[in-house]
Amino acid sequence: METAETMKDLGKDIRIIQLDPRALLEAFDKETTDIMDKGMVRCGIKLHLSENV
């Protein structure tokens, strides 16, 4: 996630595509991941959750 934010700061178009319904699902509880997801979206990072590639 830090890498995504850094790349966004460098002007890159960032998309995170993840199979799980929340970013970092195994590492944090729902409340924490909701805050993180909203922060990334607010920074302009596009989240594609519950997605298959």
Describe the overall structure.
- This protein is α+β, with helices and mostly antiparallel strands.
- It has helices at 2-9, 30-42; strands at 15-18, 46-49.
- The protein has a two-stranded parallel sheet.
- α2 (30-42) links the parallel β1 (15-18) and β2.
- The protein is globular and about 30 Å long.
- The protein starts with a helix and ends with a strand.
- 2% of the residues are buried.
Structure keywords:
alpha+beta; single chain; 2 strands; two-stranded parallel ribbon; 53 residues
Strand order of the largest sheet: 1-2
Count of strand segments: 2
The percentage helix is: 25-40%
- Biggest β-sheet: count, sense, barrel? 2 strands, parallel
In the residues, how many domains can be counted? 1
Question: How much of the residues is beta strand, in percent?
Answer: 15-25%
Question: What is the count of helical runs?
Answer: 2
What structural class do helix, strand and pairing data support? alpha+beta
Rounded to an integer in angstroms, the radius of gyration calculated over CA atoms is 11 Å
Give, in order, the helices and strands.
Answer: HEHE
Weakly predicted, low-confidence segments: none
Query: What gross morphology would you assign?
Result: globular
